Amino acid sequence: MTERDAARLLPLRPRVFAILLALAESPLHGYGLMRKLSEDGTGPLLGPGTLYRLLKEMQAEGLIVASTAGPGDSDGPPRRYYTLSGFGRRVARAEGERMERLVVKAEMLLSE
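RE: above sequence
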C-alpha cells in the first residue's frame, strides 16, 4: 500500500493511534494491550468489546496482523497476538507528522 493509501486514513481516531503506538514497541495480546494503554496513559481506557472491535477493523484495513504465536506463551490457552504491519507503521508515522504540524501551527498562532 502506498503513502497515498496511508493518507486516506488520516486523521486517525485517538484510540487507533494509541493502539498503533503501543504495538510499535512489541506484539501484544488483547489483555496486554489494554494494560499497556492504561499504564502508559497513551490512550483512552478501552473495554474489551471496544478494543476487539477496533482490532478487527484495524486488521481489515491492513494496519495490524494477528497470529496465535507470541512471545512468552505458556501452558494456558493460545492467545491472539497483534503486530503492527509495515503499512500500519507508515500510517502511524504519517499521523505523528500530521499532529506535529498542528502543534507547530498552534504554537505559532497562540504564542504572545
